[in-house]
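Recap from last week: sequence in, structure out.
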Amino acid sequence: MTYSPDPPATARPVSSASSSASVRMPVAHTEGDRALETPYLQIENVHKRFGSFVALRDIYLDVYPGEFVCLLGPSGCGKTTLLRIIAGLEQQTSGRVIQAGRDVSSLPPAKRDFGIVFQSYALFPNLTAAQNIAYGLQNAKMPKAQIDARVAELLETVGLAGFGAKYPAQLSGGQQQRVALARALALSPGLLLLDEPLSALDAQVRVRLRTEIAQLQKRLGITTIMVTHDQAEALAMADRAVVMDKGYIAQVGTPHSIYQRPTTPFVANFIGVMNFLRGVVASSGQVRCGNLLLDAPRNEFDMNTPVQIAIRPENVKILPQQDAFDSSLPNVIAAELEEVEFLGSGYRIGMRLEGDAKDLITSELPADAAELLDLQVGAALVAQLPPDCIQVFAQEPVRA
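Predicted structure tokens:
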């Protein structure tokens, strides 16, 4: 048995928010040369119900050998339920889980090849760090000399050489999580599962440990799936991110592609920060937002279709006042400053665009650029929305 002892007995509660009943086609999950590679893990049409609530619907996902995949989404989206189904800690209502060519859909956790690290560490408090790591090796009836050598190797691997005699209560949170990680790796599993392993740690330790885990995963080459709701973790650690929403997979791709080319407003708004302006299509390359006519070349909607345009705050430019009358620059708009937020390395400002009084738009400025501007509330600014940074989405209905 390669999973950590004493896992939580029940699935985490999931949101009762309703999800669309419309049929959704499987999402394509291969990119580039991946299409020619045999997946290590295949999730095929997995559904999960808790009574009348549908927690997962139409889940298709391929994970490739040595890949680091993050299941990312808000609370209640189904990501932890999916991880537990992969581990056998939860039984899917229908669908299949195939690992290394073997259908493990009905197998209990002890018959599956994985190691798992929980958010709560799940260490035995009455065992030392070394004894916690040795637990699975002892159950596998390995000779003591091999166990001792393996434990010493793993303590060294996770940066805890010399800490083997300490009990969990004598270790920091980050050190406890390293012990849990070493224990999960003890039997050299084919698959490593991480269930929000960093969320209980303070910010500085979390950043340091996420770097260490990502480097360790690459060094060992172990196929890894991590659940997180933290966008920064997913962007920093994953080879691919799987963004989930209300039991569906909303988008799969590299962190860069998901951030730069989100396919839905939900993904655009969940990954990073996004400005949205509501409008209607005025032509194949323009959208009218209030009294503003904006160039938006990536626009495939019919005339007069209600849409929303999206642009990242870091792509909204603040121009010198003299450029307000430069007709060669597209989408240059007068604006009034309404909000200023100091971020340390720069500023985030909120502006009201002239001609579109409904929407506040934000821009992020490095400190040196901000020092050249009058950042007093009420100040007149000149903003530019570069057309090649604008995405156009169908307008979602306004919810009461």
